[in-house]
Recover the amino acids of this structure.
């Protein structure tokens, strides 16, 4: 059975690990809140109403694309395209190509950053593979002008960070929603994971500051991961009502 993403791809290894996947979205949630086009998800009201639920919904789509048979994966991408088209029709104008690129590039950046934080440094070849995999997804979504290697992608990504990010009322509201839905302790944990993962530019815009404790605990956490004793710690990272979704992520992967 041919899958959309090759079985040997490093992307499957990255996204087959639950805590790495959660770290990807923890980092992306910071950058996404700064994006100039975040108002698109405020248009429906679904993001501020349930930001954690939206995260798991996105994870589910990503799993289908990365792990499922090619026809099923393409069908999932077409469903995403249809959702976007309906949203554009309701609002009366289109999401820009830059807007689509920004989200795709977040997934590339935080896939690499999260894996390197929790596992090991990726080789240049592996980084190219991450970019090519998301380029393949991007082409199915009709996203244009995507670099197909890590070196060129990094230049474009860094340029778009300075061009497409701004701290706005949406940013402030979204972080308030994170805190409301996560609770004080998990929100504090989220911020520290973000401090550890995000670029300097994103950190400066959000005024996150230096990591507090996550980087100090990482050596111990990595040791625990080797023996797969970290599952209960993963459950601490999400509110209780989402534990079943975390277990479902493990099962799907």
């Amino acid at each position: 059975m041919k899958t959309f993403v090759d079985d040997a791809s490093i992307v499957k290894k990255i996204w087959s690990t639950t805590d790495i996947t959660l770290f990807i979205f923890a980092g992306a949630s910071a950058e996404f809140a700064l994006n100039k086009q975040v108002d698109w998800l405020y248009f429906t009201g679904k993001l501020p109403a349930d930001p954690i639920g939206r995260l798991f919904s996105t994870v589910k789509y990503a799993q289908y694309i990365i792990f499922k048979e090619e026809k099923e994966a393409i069908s999932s991408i077409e469903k995403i395209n249809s959702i976007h088209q309906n949203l554009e029709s309701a609002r009366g104008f289109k999401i820009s190509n830059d807007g689509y690129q920004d989200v795709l590039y977040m997934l590339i950046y935080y896939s690499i950053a999260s894996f390197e934080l929790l596992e090991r440094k990726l080789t240049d070849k592996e980084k190219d593979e991450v970019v090519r995999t998301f380029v393949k997804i991007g082409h199915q979504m009709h996203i244009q002008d995507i670099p197909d290697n890590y070196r060129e992608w990094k230049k474009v990504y860094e340029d778009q960070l300075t061009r497409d990010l701004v701290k706005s009322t949406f940013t402030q509201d979204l972080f308030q929603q994170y805190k409301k839905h996560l609770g004080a302790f998990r929100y504090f944990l989220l911020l520290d994971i973000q401090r550890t993962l995000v670029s300097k530019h994103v950190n400066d815009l959000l005024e996150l500051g230096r990591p507090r404790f996550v980087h100090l605990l990482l050596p111990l956490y990595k040791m625990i991961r080797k023996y797969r004793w970290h599952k209960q710690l993963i459950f601490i990272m999400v509110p209780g009502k989402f534990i079943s979704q975390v277990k479902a992520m493990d099962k799907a992967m």
User: Anything to note?
Assistant: DSSP finds 15 helices and no strands in the chain. Residues 10-246 form one domain.
